[in-house]
Amino acid sequence: MKHLSSILGAAALLFAGLAPAPSVSADQTPGKTAPGMTADVKPATSFTAKANASVYGELDFGNRQEHEFATRGLIDAPEKLELKDENGRIIWSQAAYAFLDKFKKAPESANPSLWENTVNNHAYGLFKVVDGIYQVRGYDMANLTVVRGRTGWIVFDTTMCVECSRAAIELIEKNLGKFPVKAVIISHPHVDHYGGIAGVMDKEDRADPSQPIEQQLAGGKIPIIVPKGFTEHAVKENVYAGKAMSRRANYQYGVLLTPGPEGRLAQGIGMGQSTGTVSFMAPTFEITKTGEKITIDGVELEFPLTPGTEAPAEMNTWIPKYRALWVAENCTATLHNLYTLRGAEVRDGAAWAGYITEAVTRYGREAEVTFQSHNWPHWGNKLVNDYLVNTAAVYKFINDQTLTYINQGYTSDEIANMISLPKALAANWYTRPYYGTVSHDSRAVYQKFMGWYDGNPVHLNPLMPTARAKKWVEYLGSTDNVLAKARKDFENGEYRWVAEITNTLVFADPKNTAARLLCADALEQLGYQSESGPWRNEYLSAALELRNGNTHPASPAKGGNDQLMEQTAPMIFDYMAIVLNKEALQDADFVMNVTLPDVNEKHMLRVKNGVLLVFRDTLSDSPDVSITCPKNALFGILSNDRDAVAKNVKVEGKAELLTLLMKNMMEFPIRGSVPFNIVEP
Question: Is 566-663 assigned to CATH 3.20.20.70?
């Protein structure tokens, strides 16, 4: 029997984008190495060295503007930054990147452009944006920003982990004095922006959400101000597909990789994810319309909403007193994702561009500085406008050019290989593909408008990957012959093809050590050449697993239950429907009434041939079973915690149907002893 407390604690890890720590299966470990091949990390080949060296001729490395901005205004920074949790476990380290100082230029195993971004992100500490606005950068993947009011601080975003935000606040207080927090503003519902809130304020200091914002501000408590739809998206995004997102996030952020010239570098929007304690406090006030104004501690703030850009709910902030524009994560000194590799709904490039141009229209004449939740500010009215306009132009170009190619009949694969930014846009350091890429953003546009199907009927119903791989091997004849040709292609620097063909062999026979190792070597070189931090992480993580087996992160973030408890009843029902053992209930057909007095809700559930249907705000006149309980007691049903259900749930009618439903809930959250495979069957 699963106990509710442990279940909720494990589920909370999903919100950090990290999977619980599973064990490694012995049968997934590669066997003996083939002659001349090893499972060791390799240096850059001559082809990779040449490819990376060519980057110096493509970009203006003499332009140090972004580096100057990344380091401008430093007030204080510890000589060595290494943050630990209460058990002494390192949860964030800039010290791990001390190797950067040993190189005058990028090593052959790193794309020089990504190396430059890594150097800039290694600039950590307390920085002045303008007199009255300060940022702690490099203490987590996201920044913690404070705006000085008449008597205290207005905090913008709170990092991902409590240990990081607490250290950031301590650095601020050490240098700028200790002042009370008057309000917390969270720009959007991604965990790296709100997870550290418990390091900024205590839960008992949270304002009363039932009061108008004016009363919240006047009452001596701390309002938490967010864009419309924040809570729903914060709770929901990583739950429904939580296990898959967690596993894939480990690849995207290089959780298994060690920082180093042949390992993890920056992510484009920071050094990576911290692995401390994730917290959550429900907001007390939502901004519901663009242009809404609130004066906090003598500082007027204006909030333009930007839904459907980098997050489903997001907002910028204009601070006229400082002629400063907070652009959240809509501009980040890098090309961002229209599609994120961990998995999420695609984002709208045209809308993204539109909200940036709206900011130019509203504030472009006055703005003297833009600052944001990742990376560093940009100063000067002309440069601010250039920064905004060029960033908008990049997203609009990708959107429009992809549609142009779509209407010429090109597929997603073709467009991703064809599209490139105009030279003038590509030349800006702040639009380089350190996080998102033009290739993948174009695929996102294709997906948004056309879906997965490329129009070729051959691809309507393809074989399973393993079956397809075995047929390829059958047609190719000798595996040894294929490997011999692949080795030659590797020696010629054709790493993309080598990775593809050897991975086909791996899917046909996962125990083919020679194929695994050659595939790993090819992926490794692709990682070394990548300008995108996530691309590098993906390639190198895959190489690591092919060489060493399917492993797991040793230090996952710790999460509490607060965020999970914010799920609405319909959201809990939705998750029940996902984890329901549909095969076991394929012959079932019954109706359950659910009454939740604490939230004043009534819902009807129907289990119909393995499907859980939810009928909101209604009850059946003739249910098979009825239950009455507090909303959060539904977690007991979800987790098959019979003791909790017996204690908290009143049952009328056929109680055996409730038992049937409970025992057919698969493990919550869905956890296996080993993370699912990615680069092998």
Answer: no
